[in-house]
Amino acid sequence: MTGGTVAALILPELNAMILAFCRVSAFLMVLPGFSSIRIPVRIRLVAALGVSVAMLPFVAAGVEPDSMAVGAELLVGAVLGLMVRMYFLAFGFAATMLASFTGIAAMPGAPLESEEANSPVTAMLTLTATAMVFAAGLHAEFIAALALSYDVLPTGQWLAPDRMLARLTEVLAEGFLVALRLAMPFLIFSVVVNLAVGLANKAAPQVPVYFVSLPFVAAGGLIVLWQLGPDMIGLFAVSARDILAGQGL
Hints:
This protein is an all-alpha fold. The protein is about 75% helix and about 0% strand. It has one domain. The model has no long low-confidence stretch (mean pLDDT about 80).
């Protein structure tokens, strides 16, 4: 077998691997969990290479990895990962609202998945939701959705801007709707407690009711979180699977 024959056999596979790696690496770069600063870069690189090998059967043959094809693959992968990312950001918004409603948002915390420090409750809920996604196997469904995207957007085809923005808006709206539903019990708790504190302050204006009630409000919020926290995480995982299962655009 001559060198030219070997090159003719290897070059198409190499081109397909480059294009698959562009879409997969852009997807994992913004995907929650895989994009965490706590995961070493080498681990993320190995994961991207492994998923790229799995995507080789879906890559269209005969497409050269020129600048246009590489740019299209990077855009498609980034948009798909951004859809999942926005859904998790919506859940983080719900966790922040929860902490604010229960009066524990001002507590200092350490950064876990990002470089920004959140309250301990927010960090705990977002990290638990990410771990729940991996424990339930939803990350495999996200990878499967990435494979299905090749049926809708073949290799090297650019994503239509209007379609991209419409899908991103839809996922963002659905994500924040789920977030508001998850935070609604804590909103009701906050309204009831603050109404009671306001009435008590009117009845005894000489007593600093607000400062006296702070530990009781925080304790009540933690009790509500203890009762509803597992259900919140489970409902988030189920809704993430239902909303994002068909994200192949």
